[in-house]
Amino acid sequence: MLRRQFDLTKLLDVVLYLRMSDDKQNPLSPEQQEKMIRSRINRSGLNVKIARVYRDDGLTGRMTRNRKGFLKMIHEIQTGQVNVDAILVDTIERFGRMEELDEFRRRLEHEHNIVILTADKNFSDPTSSTGRVMAMFENYRATVDSEIKAHNVLRAKYLTIEQNFWPGGPVPFGYRLDEVERIEKPGARTIVHNHLVPDEGAGPIMQAIFQKSKTERSWGQERLAKYFNAKTDIPDKYKPFIGATIGRQLKNAIYQGELVWDQNCTGIVRGVRVLEANSPKDVIHVPDFCEPLVSIEDFQQVQANRIARTRNRKSESGERRRGINYRYPLTGLVRCGHCNVAMNPNSSSYKDAVYTSYICPKNRSGMCDNATRVPEEWLRETVVGFILKHLIPNDDAGRLAFVEEVTELVRAALGELQSEDLDTKPVLAAELATLGKQMSGWIQSLSNPKLSASVRELVEMQMTEASSRRNEIEEILQEDFDQNALLASLVRPEQVHERLDRLSTVLSGDNATEANLFLSMHVDKIDCFNDGRVRLRVCKVGSSFHAVSWFANQQSPETINKLPRDPVSGGYQTKPRRRGRPRVEPGDSLANLEEIDAVTDPNRFRGLPEDWFWVEDFQVPERSCWAKDNAEAVLARYNEIAESTKRKPSCNTIAKEFDVSRPTILNALDFANGKRKGAGTKHRREPKIRIKGNPDVEKQIEELHAASVLEKDIAAVIGVSRSAITAALIRLYEKRGVPKPDGRRTRHQR
């Protein structure tokens, strides 16, 4: 409405929104906000009818996607489940501190005719000229307040570092905090200053990690993690070791005694936490900040080793863009069925061919036993084929039948909710009567002037909690559950048709990021197990975003945490995290961003009815190879050459014809003859010299090796292959009880 006149004298349908930023703050803050709002309503004479009360506890106002109460309020307003004229908050900061606050208020006003009224401004008209100026000032104050607080905190940390005290944050592994002084001020927070000192238990472990990284130059962070996870002399309380964590520890200068602080800055950009590197001139370096665990020389040697192994991953332009672009459409949906971690696509190539498989990243560090490699192409074709078969009908009759099935599923779930609501109303009515009696008694107690201050404070707290609960029960009892109206707002046939058409178009295209988003609306997850099983879980109602979102919001965070988890095997378990937001253009609407945030949430389908899902098991096909697939063709060519030349064919010649290596041709002939070792074609050379069990040859190899003769030269002298010499030397060092020296250790010395 372009010329809206907001009339504060008429009856207004409103909702209340309450928020507490930090769970360390006063736990009664939301109740106090509600009490203040209701008090201001009575004092100002505002004629309102409160439809619902939404609240978020311990959540920052700079982000929206993690505020369940806020999202539920916006979703119910957008879908028409709540028809109100205004949202009442204590202050505009309680509504939010996000940078998009201006845009949010404008969209609510222009698209839904809803204004935000604040109790601290006595619910003044925000549509008037004065009100708009005041709204601009409130929005600026709400967003800049966090910047001022951050600056004050930063200044205090600078002073703490200058005094050689730990500035705060997680203590580096291998150290502990030693309290130096405690400053207690009446009415203020207690200030504790600590020094960083080596930990008696974790310190030697961290030193061993640096020493191993120094001596084993070719070992990366994953191999180090696997090595220390397997060590039995390290207590389990320090395990598991994670490769990425070890990588961060190895480059942390605190272990050489130097504090490097303020390297990065964080912020919220379009509802996503962003980490950026600060300018080098802004980074603080404090040498001799604490006792080092490793020497400066050892630390620099480890950094040199890591730099030598590092690949240059910078883009050609050198520019970084916000968001993520996926290369594979199932990224983030494939999970390990044992440790619950997201499986990563891993690629290998030969000539022009690229082979990609999903692997469990925890298997490399020894934290998970799932060594299955799931081919990306096979898995993508399997999942897409299942989606096309079950979600995208071929004709109009099938489309109508599918929409009817979705509607019936939602209708049945609403019926169950309604029956539960009818069953609980008598209980709530009885609870309301009990609260009334209790509050009457508390009022009499508070009227006693001789009541002690401590008892009075306790009674007031109980009175506040009971008042909030009474209002909540009254709102539930007054709600009119119109199932048909709600069903029409949740399942919209035209929207279902549009999304399925869009899904079909996206799956036939080449945009992996967009395909991932649309698949995430339907695919809950794809579990892969060590025995080659793949379990696909697909939501039938995924094309109705509002229905999925509404039912998910009916589950409180406490209820969701109590829901039974999927059975997984193995000791180490990963808690799924929200995926990074895919790259989107600045012009995308808030509605699109809301859907993107929803589909990247790993718990988006938790708590929904089980009959809303298809669950299908598949088996990873047996791995094949070129030699196995072309065995008959190679054997036919081998016999053809043998018949035409009356001589034993040259495997090198056949390898050139098929454009493969000689060992591949030998393996193909092995497959063709039905066994891996030896074959009727006699294509493998018989060994002329036996090494194992031949003491004379073994002694000769030992003497040549002691004379520093290279393995390939020893092989030429003996007349065998280099691999045979390597195997003989391994057996030799096993007899000595020491590992065979690895030449790869010196590969990265340059």
UniProtKB/TrEMBL annotation:
PROSITE patterns: RECOMBINASE_DNA_BIND
Top-level taxon: Bacteria
Pfam family, one: Resolvase
Xref: SMART domains: Resolvase
This protein's record includes keyword Plastid: no
Domain Recombinase: residue ranges: 172-312
Any one GO molecular-function label of the UniProt entry: DNA binding
Disordered as annotated region, ranges: 559-587
Keywords: DNA recombination, DNA-binding
PANTHER family per the UniProt record, alphabetical: DNA-INVERTASE FROM LAMBDOID PROPHAGE, SERINE RECOMBINASE PINE-RELATED
Record protein name field: Recombinase domain-containing protein
Naturally occurring in which organism (per UniProt): Novipirellula aureliae
